Amino acid sequence: MPTAYEKEREANMARNRALLEELQLDKGGATFLGMPEKPAPVPPFKKRRPVVHQKNKKRKTPPPSDSGAESETPPSRVRKVATEVEGGLRRSSRNAGKTVNYEAEIAHGLPKIVTKKVGVDHDTEPNRRSGKRAHDPKTFGSIPGIAVGTWWETREDCSNDAIHAPWVAGISGSPEGAYSVALSGGYEDDIDLGEAFTFTGSGGRDLKGTKNAPKNLRTAPQSADQSFENPFNKALKISSETKKPVRVIRGFKLKSPFAPVEGYRYDGLYTVEKAWMERGLNPKGFLVCKFAFKRVPGQKPLVLGDAEGAEAEDEEDAFSDADDTPSEVQDTEDVSGSTN
DNA sequence: GGGCCCGCAGGG
DNA sequence: CCCTGCGGGCCC
């Protein structure tokens, strides 16, 4: 006997799915590997394999840099890309420690600051971690040198590549609109059809607990209504009006056939097609902000999950996209794809 | 595997 | 400074 709330949820989901299917059929949409001519029957979920964490927190000692020639050679570890599957490295190289000893790295002669910019004075703040960034994450559109399909083990690595700056938050934005979002399974009722998906806003979670029982959490269940007054949600709403592209990463926790099995993957640019509110999938039916995203046509096709085979076949082309810049670090401030 | 607690980036 | 936030390491 479904309750009124359950029926409402069901209706919401059906309506949202219909909306996404319509978006997918839009001209230029629908382009993931192996996609049939017609609509997309979403394949069954692949079983998610959680990241296997290494007990030993120590990071692998970085290789000694090419003595002296370090002035423009970025640390090769800054970015893990799909092409690393070659040579047996695969994705099982779970060795990126969390406790990074930057002084040790500096002692090794690795340049931690690949470029300037980003509003940081690297002369006065040489140890500032964001100084590692080669590009400003607060830009709209693609990031030079970061191909669609680029993969990272952690959100931190992704952040360093300026694709999605926050380590935890799912939305990065400003009053100008949203720069990027992370699909990481935080909301069970989000639907992911690949070329189009729904996304739930932020806020309405009880992160602090009560004064007597403080929690100090980073994520928590829904405990209040969301609203578009929330700056993150507002940014996405603005994006739905300006239609500026938003970078999208999918994480391993996302329940979707398009989610990577491990880590986080950059899946290219999407536009926010619609913003609305509805009762979310939470015990008390708190309101959440919902957004419908549609992939910008003409990008490298999505892959299903890790799509082991497809990815291996594709690795030669990992950087061959027209709007991708082959080199790791740009000297120029060229921001191709930006609609700033 | 769940609970806990923490650092951190980013914005106000 | 304060606060938030779809991480992640660690302990049990």
Structure report:
This protein has 340 residues and is of the alpha+beta class. Helix content is 16%, strand content 14%. The protein has helices at 4-25, 102-107, 155-160, 231-242, 308-314, and strands at 151-152, 171-174, 177-183, 196-200, 246-251, 264-279, 287-295. Strands 1, 2, 3, 4, 5, 6 and 7 form a seven-stranded mixed sheet that branches. The structure holds a DNA duplex (12 and 12 nucleotides).
List the topology elements.
Elements (H helix, E strand, L loop, with lengths): L3 H22 L76 H6 L43 E2 L2 H6 L10 E4 L2 E7 L12 E5 L30 H12 L3 E6 L12 E16 L7 E9 L12 H7 L26
Parallel strand pairs: 3-5
Antiparallel strand pairs: 1-6, 2-3, 4-7, 5-6, 6-7
The protein binds a DNA duplex (12 and 12 nucleotides) through helix 3, strand 2 and strand 3.
Distance between the termini: 52 Å
Helix percent reads 10-25%
- CA gyration radius, whole angstroms: 21 Å
Order of helices and strands: HHEHEEEHEEEH
Number of discrete helical segments: 5
How many strands, what sense, and barrel or not for the largest sheet?
7 strands, mixed
- Strand content is 5-15%
Low-pLDDT windows of residues: 29-43, 45-130, 308-340
Give the overall silhouette: globular
Classification by helices and strands: alpha+beta
Please tell me the overall pLDDT.
69
- Total E-strand runs: 7
Could you write a compact summary of the structure shown?
This protein has five helices and seven strands.
Provide tags for this entry.
7-stranded mixed sheet; 340 residues; single chain; alpha+beta; 5 helices; 7 strands; 14% strand; DNA-binding; disordered C terminus
